[in-house]
């Protein structure tokens, strides 16, 4: 296969990989059947792919600069259940080195962690030089789900608001860039996405009892969000709100905005030269037993 054919094949692999991710965006009707895509939506989808690939190229450039400069970047993704946080995180990290850009999605605290300083388990995941950490939910759990579901006391809730601005200032003073995103969706859109999770067997694992309870407590979560934004939106560490009713637009807008916040620049790379394959006349490849191979069913 020549170089041109190889590049075309790699591009098709990228498209296939993205198509697999886009299966997450399937929509279902009330009877459980999948809603067909219109021709206009198909054309819009191609434009989305083209734009996404361009932004992902810039994310790779950002990654190179982070590694070269020793920059430390923390990105928080918050929002209601099914708001699309996981989708944008996947698109950001899709082409990046997992050793540089890693995701922190912490489970509920265990008995020992509940007795620690509240921020302690999050501190363990903060980046070292040349690293990016994306928090899929963060220390703001206390201002949201813990408050609404009664998992924290009033005193713990108030102490969080006293502590978090200074905690984030400490991170920023230490040289860590902190970016905070809230993904905002409407009541109707969350309802539709929950129905999609119910009907799609590939998504049912995403639907937890906590998610279902959040539907019932929509207004309580709204009030908690409003208080959180009011009390933790600071000049040093502002919140950025993403309109997320349209998943694809939300991803593109968020990635473009993130790129605008990081002062990255191109990092020069030495020209890569493929070394010649070294062959030895006395080397003979040993046969591998047939039973060791995975059956070629496809």
TrEMBL record:
Keywords: Kinase, Transferase
An example molecular function term from Gene Ontology annotations: polyphosphate kinase activity
NCBIfam families: PPK2_P_aer
Oligomer and partners: Homotetramer.
Polyphosphate kinase-2-related domain residues: 44-267
Family: Belongs to the polyphosphate kinase 2 (PPK2) family. Class I subfamily.
Enzyme Commission (EC) number: 2.7.4.-
Function of the protein: Uses inorganic polyphosphate (polyP) as a donor to convert GDP to GTP or ADP to ATP.
Name of this chain's protein: ADP/GDP-polyphosphate phosphotransferase
One Pfam assignment: PPK2
KW Transcription regulation (keyword) present: no
